[in-house]
Amino acid sequence: MGFPIEQECPQCGAAIELEETDHLIRCPYCNVGNFLYTRDYFRFLLPQKVSDKDILYAPYMRFKGTVYFCRDTSIGHRIVDITRQGMAFKQLPMSLGLRPQVLKMRFVTPDVAGLFIKCSQRPADILGKVAKHTLAYIGEALSLIYLPLFVQKNRVFDAVTNRPIAKLPQGEDIFAPAIDDSPRWQMAFMATICPQCGWNLEGERDSVALTCKNCDTVWEVSEGNFIQVGFRAVPGKGEDSIYLPFWKISARDRGLKINSYADFIRLTNQPKVIQRQWEEQDMAFWIPAFKIRPKIFLRLARQMTVSQKDFEMEEEIPKKNLYPVTLPQSEAAQSMKITLANSGLIKKKIFPLLRRVNFTIEESTLVYLPFDETGHELIQEHMRVSINKNALKFGRGL
């Protein structure tokens, strides 16, 4: 699970406890819903225990997600949860350790007193050290966590524990050049009202796409606005069907000349007799629009992409049993290259070609597919693809 966060309801001021993975908050007191949004990444404060000191906030960059990479003739993956110092001060700890998991943090807001040290590290500086030959970062949560400090008699104190952690050169203020003089960070609380009809948008706490069942629309947040998402739904065979979301991403690649489904089949050496119509059929990657264990994520993306099932679809949101979209289209698009690599039957042939791949996305559609619940599994009604229910539950905490 993500770390705990304390937040006040922007409508009535009541205290709300969130998880790091929460995007949609609904106040249990006034019942007003809001979607959390920031232009780059969320910023959090560790709780300090001093009240009579001038506080300095030191930034630590945190990455949580799954890293996929090529290794010899197989696809490797790691679930990563790390914090790294966001500035170049050897005197301070390089990591925050387990603190983000055990301490209740809160968002950085304009009323926070103190000075903030600039974050000089970029996400690429941190992620580039996680794994070699990385192809994708999926399900990622990138944020800044600030460690409160104070200086007293040339010693730097941790304001969480009130203990000294570093000694400064006599008479020098090494932090002064790194202070951010005018931080302009903002976090927006977006009212969950359908931009098209004014109805209440629906979703779960970790949803990254919200639905309006009044006008049958789906919405994602981009640049501080709700943007409509193209979607389709495959009708289920019964009233108890459970609908799981997938991103169908049509794309082309000039490097390896993947312009059709037939090109994909030839490149990946699938044991299929290529049909004439496949030469004109656009290449589409089918990527789970929900977080799940890496091994299952790879299997589902490969099975769905290789099969290219021609479903009968409609433009109506299923009225119940709708599984939340927890993986945005932008991250699903990052997995196209790893899906291509995993689909190749002869890995030593396709791996060296991956550096030439640069997909151009032509269309992206959210598709809800019906699954039957059978004991411990969900089985796709048309393709018989299975997903363990516990794996879905585990994925909500990734």
Describe it for me?
This protein has helices spanning 99-102, 123-127, 261-268, 294-307, 329-334, 336-343, 347-350, 389-395; strands at 4-8, 15-19, 24-26, 33-37, 42-45, 56-71, 74-85, 105-107, 115-116, 134-152, 155-158, 163-167, 188-191, 209-212, 217-222, 225-229, 231-233, 242-253, 284-288, 359-374, 377-380, 386-388. The chain has 398 residues and is mainly β. The model has no long low-confidence stretch (mean pLDDT 89). The protein is built from 8 helices and 22 strands. It folds into 2 domains: 38-188, no CATH class; 230-395, no CATH class.
What is the compact description of this entry?
This protein has 398 residues and is mainly beta.
- Fraction of residues in H or I helices: 10-25%
Helix and strand content put the structural class at: mainly beta
Number of domains: 2
Number of helices: 8
Uncertain parts: none
Give the strand content. Answer: 35-45%
Tell me the overall shape: globular
- What average pLDDT do the residues reach? 89
N-C termini distance: 7 Å
Q: Total number of β-strand segments? A: 22
Largest beta-sheet characterization: 10 strands, mixed
The radius of gyration computed from the alpha-carbon positions, rounded to a whole number of angstroms, is: 24 Å
* Helix and strand sequence: EEEEEEEHEEHEEEEEEEEEHEHHHHEEEH
